[in-house]
Design brief:
This protein is of the alpha+beta class and about 110 residues long. The protein has one domain. It is about 30% helix and about 45% strand. A four-stranded antiparallel β-sheet has the order 1-2-3-4. The longest helix is centred in the C-terminal third of the chain and has 24 residues. The relative contact order is 0.19. The model has no long low-confidence stretch (mean pLDDT about 90).
Length: about 110
């Protein structure tokens, strides 16, 4: 019997200190950090693909904050913070299956 295990997962990555300001929820001056929230689709928990991403400036205490434009946030960070297998894992999985099919066809 063959079955496919798949899942959706929401992941939050903290990218570093952004600023210190008044939090409207806490009511106090707090540190805000730049955070990336992305939705991950996986097959067999290994082969993933990002389906949606958003950047936020979040309060480090209550986790509430404001949405940040992607171009503005990506200008602040040097490299893509999403792990390789989350970004390209699904493509790697498809390439591995194609490679196995080609190798089995060639060896026959």
């Amino acid at each position: 019997m063959f079955f496919i295990v798949w899942a959706h997962k929401l992941i939050l990555l903290w990218l570093g200190f952004a600023e210190q300001r008044l939090c409207s929820v806490c009511g106090q001056t707090r540190q805000f950090q730049l955070a990336l929230q992305y939705k991950l689709f996986t097959i067999y928990w290994i082969f993933g693909a990002v389906s949606q991403k958003q950047y936020f400036n979040l309060c480090t205490v209550c986790k509430h904050g404001d949405k940040v434009e992607a171009s503005q946030a990506e200008a602040q960070i040097q490299k893509n913070p999403i792990p390789f297998m989350h970004r390209w894992g699904l493509l790697v999985g498809v390439a591995a299956v194609v490679l196995l099919v080609v190798l089995s066809a060639v060896s026959s």
